[in-house]
Amino acid sequence: MYNSTGSSDYSSVPTYHKEQIVNAIIEIPAGSSEKWEMDKTSGKIIRDTINGMPRTIDYLGYPAHYGMIPKTLLNEENGGDGDPLDVIVIGSDAIRGSVLPCKIIGILHLNDNGLKDDKLIAVSQKSRFFSLESMTDLRTNYPGITEIFELWFSNYKGAGQMISLGYGDKNDALSILNRSIEEYKSSVK
User: Fold this and answer.
1) What is the rounded distance in angstroms from the CA atom of residue 137 to the CA atom of residue 146?
2) Which of 122, 151, 117, 150 lies closest to 135, judged by CA?
């Protein structure tokens, strides 16, 4: 149904795979430096551009899979950036365009040039990380990962553009997820 070329239409992918397991659409696989994103109009994954040129991150590649949660939206007035919720997915190999069932375990609060730009933290259902239930579990069982994410996201756009405001727990993340689902539903009426 979905493929890595970005030519698939992801607009029909539901937010939830099943109870408490969300779908994450992977826009950027771990290790990649190319910036891809879901086009809200076409529902396809397209190469992001700046001034008509393909966007490539001038930093180390992404430290984990990166994507979005379908059928979510959080506008600036509600603490978002006007796009679907971003998600960092810890897990096994994936390619661009993968739809990975995941469990949310927390959130990284970021400020992007004055705008809130939070990233949900999730663990892929088909990985050894799926047994993790919280950010505390992640820190205890895999020391250093939270520090890597915080350092990477604070620096990949250049000095001073992204500021980490720390991590929130699973309840904080799910509260933002639920708010973004409601906002999406209101926007499509």
Assistant:
1) 11
2) 122
Place of tokens 């004055």: 114
Q: Are 133 and 105 in contact (CB under 8 A)?
A: yes
Tell me how far apart the alpha carbons of residues 121 and 167 are, in angstroms, rounded to a whole number. 9
* 120: β partners: 87, 107
Digit-coded pLDDT (tens) for 77-120:
766 778 899 999 999 999 999 999 999 999 999 999 888 899 99
Model confidence over 170-188: pLDDT tens digits?
Answer: 999 999 999 999 999 998 8
Reduced to 3 states (helix: H, G, I; strand: E, B; else coil), residue 25 is: strand
CA distance 41 to 169: 32
SS3 80: coil
Neighbours of 90 (CB within 10 A): 23
Q: Could you give the maximum distance between any two Cα atoms of the chain, in Å? A: 44
Between β-strands 45-47 and 65-68, what pairing exists: parallel, antiparallel or unpaired? unpaired
CATH level 3 topology of 16-187: Inorganic Pyrophosphatase (3.90.80)
Separation between Cα atoms, residue 53 and residue 34, nearest integer Å: 12
In whole angstroms, what is the distance from residue 47 CA to residue 51 CA?
13
pTM beyond cutoff 0.85:
yes
At 182 the three-state DSSP class reads: helix
